[in-house]
């Protein structure tokens, strides 16, 4: 038995039309979903009722600028009472210092000024009258005699310090002393390589005898004299 087919019942005849209608419907739904907006429900109550009243808060007041008080008015001047001076004041009489011809002029005697002796030191090499060593009073050349006597005195009193010998210390000690105005020996100074040698040189010079002081222009003066003392081990 053959099925009967209605030629008007063709399903594929309007398929493209249905497709366009469905696509348009889908686009409309998508657009509506994208443009959909939701709003919160509006409050019907008065917002001003929920605002706290802040008038009770303490509002800090602006500090007032303190201006210094005006200066006090000047005090009224005291009333000065004028008192009459009943006491008599003696006038000071200034006498003239000029002398009259009638007054006698007293002559002042001349005041003698004592000469102060200067403490002069004259080197041994240039002094006019050299100090005289005991035993050189009658020598023709007192300067050469002085130096010879000095060498003899050093040789007679020379003694090498034992501690310096043990240590092997030797050298020359330069000695400077002053023959005072009374002929004594003073202001002794030494300079050498060892204190023991300096002490021995001091001992030798201190044993010098008192001399006749040197003179410059007939007056006794100080005379500095220097001499080396050599310490040499044999």
TrEMBL record:
Residues 99-156 form a coiled coil. It holds the Pfam family TonB_C. Residues 145-234 form the TonB C-terminal domain. GO terms for biological process: protein transport; siderophore transport; transmembrane transport. The chain crosses the membrane at residues 16-34. InterPro entries: TonB, TonB-dependent_transducer, TonB/TolA_C, TonB_C. It is a single-pass membrane protein. The keyword Acetylation does not apply. It comes from the Bacteria. It is found in: Cell inner membrane. GO terms for molecular function: energy transducer activity. Keywords: Cell inner membrane, Cell membrane, Coiled coil, Membrane, Protein transport, Transmembrane, Transmembrane helix, Transport. One of its GO terms (cellular component) is plasma membrane protein complex. NCBIfam families: tonB_Cterm. Belongs to the TonB family. This is Energy transducer TonB. The lineage of its organism: Bacteria, Pseudomonadati, Bacteroidota, Flavobacteriia, Flavobacteriales.
